[in-house]
């Protein structure tokens, strides 16, 4: 019980002593306040100088707390800052020993003269800080005034290198009413940079530098020079957001548009693809228009979008030309020789394109350049000579000729018979079964009173392929031969007759077989026409394929070159920003 009473006594005594000290301090501070502002008749509206002609020195510094927003569209920057101002008020000095060793007091700013510092380049009409805190006064008469503020200042945005841009925004502070002769602004402790000790990093911008300088401007009303403090905020945009959301999609659109040259030309998917990509690029341009302000210069990303847009339009034009070429036919147009030579013979070699049996067919056609390159396999054909029927009286006059044959002639006949038999087997496999043959060498033949005859001869000139058989039809009563598979030159016909054996006797045919031979002639001619027609169609389609490959290579090179050209022109694209290091260096330079 005794211990409890002692503890209660000591606690009450301690509280009494503390309250007594606080009461004494409050009394001394109240007395100091009365002496400074009432007894000395202090006026907060009068500039605190001994001589009215002298200038009052204002030490000014700016603490940047955060960059809230940079509005490129409206060309303003919103910042959270603290204004640090201090000056000497000779009327507010006192002796601490007379007031209980009080060295500092905090006074409402309405009791103290405060300079009318405003932001000259504000953009929202708020020239002064919205919140005015208390002033801190020490016994030497130094007054500190640190109002926080959120300023919306105008900033000229240069969008030439957007989104790889670096902006410089200025904040101009000065007195609204006092000229340079009455107020002189200078940097606190000679530090001409913003204070970044309390800065919160921004997710879209990096601080590069925050220099400041003192400037003098002329008053528009009085004409007197006015001292102002200008802080420059050098910031660089972080490009990750725009790279992911604008540049990469645009580049992928350009690559997708190149796929149009891979699609087949006879389909409508080519036009559908390029028009879809064109519409999506228009949407991206509209989004870009909402972000950027009107400017005298074209932004870098806008140049890239316009470049991609133009490439897309050119791809549409080339796609239309390619589709138009692929749908041409012998009934609508004839392919010029120079186009045939360039796009069907020369360019495919350099574009790594090869048609099946392209070179062999060219050589067989013996054209330079050939009008077409048939893809159908070459089939051996017989030499069919149809002659006039022999009259009966002439048949009676004809006598079998007997000739003395030597051993060399016998060997030659054996070779001929072997060639004829070998050819007959090929003929049966590759020709219609309705045509039958009889060997004149064996003596079997058809006879008729008035029937045309058909001679079947085989030749294989040394300068032609071994399977290069010709089919020659000759109408009765005429001596002109017409090739049903290709137009032979006179020299070739003479070679043909030279290699045919005149000792072979003709085969007599009936009128039905003669009609069948004419039908075969018509069928051969139709097959040739169909083959030539399809060959020309294939040539036009192959021309479209060559154009597709050529345009794809050209557009890939141009797209890559344009993309690299745009990226190389962007400044600071390869530079990395260490924000922590920059802030630490600025703080170290201030100290």
TrEMBL record:
SUPFAM superfamilies with a match to the protein in the record: Neurotransmitter-gated ion-channel transmembrane pore, Nicotinic receptor ligand binding domain-like
Biased composition (Low complexity): 438-450
Gene3D superfamilies named among the record's database cross-references: Neurotransmitter-gated ion-channel ligand-binding domain, Neurotransmitter-gated ion-channel transmembrane domain
Compositional bias of kind Basic and acidic residues: 409-418
Chief site of localization: membrane
Compartmental location: Synaptic cell membrane
Segments crossing the lipid bilayer: 240-264, 271-292, 304-325, 550-568
Organism: Biomphalaria glabrata
The Neurotransmitter-gated ion-channel ligand-binding domain, residue ranges: 29-239
Residues of the Neurotransmitter-gated ion-channel transmembrane domain: 246-566
Protein origin, superkingdom: Eukaryota
InterPro entries: Neur_chan_lig-bd, Neur_chan_lig-bd_sf, Neur_channel, Neuro-gated_channel_TM_sf, Neuro_actylchol_rec, Neurotrans-gated_channel_TM, Neurotransmitter_ion_chnl_CS, Nicotinic_acetylcholine_rcpt
Disordered: region residues: 388-450
Single Gene Ontology MF annotation: transmembrane signaling receptor activity
Protein known as: Acetylcholine receptor subunit beta-like 1 isoform X2
Alphabetical UniProt keywords: Cell membrane, Disulfide bond, Glycoprotein, Ion channel, Ion transport, Ligand-gated ion channel, Membrane, Receptor, Signal, Synapse, Transmembrane, Transmembrane helix, Transport
Keyword Transmembrane assigned: yes
Family: Belongs to the ligand-gated ion channel (TC 1.A.9) family. Acetylcholine receptor (TC 1.A.9.1) subfamily.
GO cellular component: postsynaptic membrane
Topology in membrane: Multi-pass membrane protein
Residues making up the signal peptide according to the UniProt record: 1-19
UniProt gene name: LOC106058549
């Amino acid at each position: 019980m005794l211990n409890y009473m002692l503890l209660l006594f000591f606690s009450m005594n301690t509280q009494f002593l503390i309250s007594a000290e606080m009461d004494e301090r409050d009394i001394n501070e109240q007395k100091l306040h009365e002496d400074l502002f009432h007894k000395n008749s202090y006026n907060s509206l009068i500039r605190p100088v001994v001589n009215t002609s002298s200038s009052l020195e204002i030490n000014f510094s700016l603490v940047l707390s955060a960059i809230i927003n940079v509005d490129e569209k409206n060309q303003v920057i919103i910042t959270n800052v603290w204004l640090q101002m201090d000056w000497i008020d000779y009327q507010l000095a006192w002796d601490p020993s007379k007031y209980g060793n009080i060295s500092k007091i905090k006074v409402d700013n309405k009791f103290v003269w405060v300079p009318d510092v405003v932001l000259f380049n504000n953009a929202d009409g708020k020239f002064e800080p919205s919140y005015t805190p208390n002033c801190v006064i020490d016994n030497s008469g130094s007054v500190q005034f640190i109002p926080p503020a959120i300023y919306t200042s105008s900033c000229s945005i240069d969008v030439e290198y957007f989104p790889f841009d670096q902006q410089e925004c200025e904040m101009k502070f000065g007195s609204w009413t006092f000229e340079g002769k009455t107020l002189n602004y200078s940097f606190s402790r000679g530090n001409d940079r913003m204070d970044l000790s309390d800065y919160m990093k921004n997710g879209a911008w990096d601080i590069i530098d925050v220099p400041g300088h003192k400037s003098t401007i002329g008053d528009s009303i009085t004409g007197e020079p006015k001292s102002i403090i200008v802080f420059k905020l050098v910031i660089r945009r972080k490009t990750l957001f725009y790279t992911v959301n604008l540049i990469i999609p645009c580049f992928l659109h350009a690559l997708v548009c190149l796929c149009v040259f891979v699609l087949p030309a006879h389909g409508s998917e080519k036009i559908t693809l390029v028009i879809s990509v064109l519409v999506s690029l228009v949407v991206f341009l509209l989004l870009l228009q909402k972000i950027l302000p009107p400017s005298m210069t074209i932004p870098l990303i806008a140049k890239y979008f316009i470049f991609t847009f133009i490439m897309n339009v050119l791809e549409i034009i080339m796609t239309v030309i390619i589709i138009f070429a692929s749908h041409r036919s012998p009934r609508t147009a004839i392919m010029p020789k120079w186009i045939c030579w360039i796009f069907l013979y020369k360019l495919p070699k350099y574009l790594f394109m090869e048609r099946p049996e392209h070179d062999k067919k060219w050589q067989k056609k013996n054209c330079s350049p050939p009008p077409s390159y048939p893809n159908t396999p070459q089939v051996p054909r017989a030499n069919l000579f149809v002659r006039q029927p022999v009259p009966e009286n002439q048949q009676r006059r004809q006598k079998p000729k007997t000739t003395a044959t030597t051993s060399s002639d016998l060997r030659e006949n054996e070779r001929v018979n072997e060639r004829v038999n070998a050819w007959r087997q090929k003929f049966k496999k590759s020709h219609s079964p309705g045509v039958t043959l009889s060997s004149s060498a064996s003596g079997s033949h058809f006879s008729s009173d008035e029937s045309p005859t058909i001679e079947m001869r085989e030749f294989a000139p040394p300068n032609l392929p071994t399977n290069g058989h010709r089919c020659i039809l000759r109408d009765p009563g005429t001596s002109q031969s017409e090739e049903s598979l290709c137009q032979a030159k006179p020299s070739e016909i003479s070679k043909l007759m030279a290699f045919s054996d005149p000792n072979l006797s003709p085969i007599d045919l009936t009128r039905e077989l003669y009609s069948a031979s004419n039908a075969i002639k018509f069928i051969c001619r139709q097959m040739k026409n169909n083959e030539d027609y399809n060959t020309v169609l294939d040539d036009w389609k192959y021309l479209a394929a060559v154009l597709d490959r050529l345009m794809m290579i050209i557009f890939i090179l141009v797209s890559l070159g344009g993309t690299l050209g745009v990226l190389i022109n962007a400044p600071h694209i390869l530079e990395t920003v260490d924000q922590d290091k920059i802030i630490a260096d600025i703080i170290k330079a201030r100290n």
